[in-house]
């Protein structure tokens, strides 16, 4: 354990990605306290609608982890986060309800973003979800245009920014009888995943498609209610 902690500190700076403390052992990204918090959050996946599963709510902890995944050159966080989430029955049960044959379709990055980042975080997520659920990864889509970051835009701006941005890859053959599941890191307004679903609708496959993301970014009111519910001590 001491050897692993030394390697962890060398590779990751010795700070917990959640609380930034450097005086506790890491696993290699979280201290024991933040790991317990992440497991607690995994027990409450978010469901904006029956066809969407978000493995975690967005909190300061989960937001910092996704930031590390996307911008911190830490692709291993994808497997780490998915495995913890799918150890909980609720998320695993949703995937089982969606069908025995699921094909996980990562939201594609534009080639310029891929060169900059070195990997597609949605693809990393899709790979682990597929392994954990017995599904397959289907890189069926490509991004046609390079738009500005969704984080800078309003709800209306996000929808306009990604409208028509994705199309079916030439000569891609869909795995027969598999239900499409679009995979992304964060579900906010649904604009990005809706644009991906449009590409499936053009191939008469949109009606069966689902969406699975790592986080659900909710309205301010919803976040306040979520925090209050989790802080409440229930005497049953």
Number of helices: 10
How many domains? The number is 1
Q: Which radius of gyration do the C-alpha atoms yield?
A: 18 Å
The largest pleated sheet is described as:
5 strands, parallel
Question: Any idea what the shape is?
Answer: globular
Quickly name the level 1 CATH class: Alpha Beta
Helix content: 40-55%
Explain this structure to me?
The structure is a single chain. With 236 residues, this protein is α/β, with parallel strands linked by helices. The chain has a single domain, classed as Rossmann fold (3-Layer(aba) Sandwich). The chain is 45% helix and 15% strand. The protein has ten helices and seven strands. The strands form two sheets. Strands 1-7-6-2-3 form a five-stranded parallel sheet, sandwiched between helices. Strand 6, helix 9 and strand 7 form a beta-alpha-beta unit. Helix 3 runs antiparallel to helix 4 and helix 4 runs parallel beside helix 7. It is globular and about 55 Å long. This is ComF family protein. Belongs to the ComF/GntX family. InterPro entries: ComF/GntX_DNA_util-trans, PRTase-like, PRTase_dom.
Task: Name its key features.
236 residues, alpha/beta, Rossmann fold, 5-stranded parallel sheet, two-stranded antiparallel ribbon, 45% helix, disordered C terminus
Short description:
The chain has helices at residues 2-12, 32-42, 60-71, 76-86, 89-98, 111-117, 121-133, 155-162, 191-201, 220-231; strands at 52-57, 102-106, 136-137, 141-143, 166-168, 179-187, 210-216.
């Amino acid at each position: 354990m001491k050897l692993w902690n030394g390697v962890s500190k060398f590779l990751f700076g010795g700070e917990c990605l959640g609380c930034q403390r450097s005086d506790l052992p890491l696993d290699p990204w979280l201290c024991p306290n933040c790991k317990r918090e992440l497991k607690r959050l995994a027990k409450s996946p978010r469901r904006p609608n029956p066809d969407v599963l978000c493995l975690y709510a967005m909190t300061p902890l989960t937001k910092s982890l996704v930031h590390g995944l996307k911008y911190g050159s830490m692709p291993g966080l994808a497997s780490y986060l998915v495995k913890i989430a799918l150890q909980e029955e609720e998320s695993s049960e949703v995937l089982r309800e969606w069908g025995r044959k699921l094909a996980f379709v990562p939201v594609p990055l534009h080639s310029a973003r891929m060169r900059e980042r070195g990997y597609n975080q949605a693809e990393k997520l899709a790979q682990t979800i597929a392994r954990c659920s017995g599904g397959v990864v289907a890189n069926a889509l490509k991004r046609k245009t390079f738009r500005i970051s969704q984080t800078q835009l309003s709800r209306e701006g996000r929808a306009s920014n990604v409208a028509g941005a994705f199309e079916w890859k030439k000569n891609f053959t869909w795995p027969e009888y598999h239900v499409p599941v679009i995979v992304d890191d964060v579900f906010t307004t649904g604009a990005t995943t809706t644009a991906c679903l449009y590409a499936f609708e053009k191939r008469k496959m949109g009606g069966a498609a689902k969406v699975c993301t790592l986080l659900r970014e909710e309205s301010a009111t919803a976040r306040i209610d979520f925090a209050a519910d989790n802080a409440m001590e229930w005497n049953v």
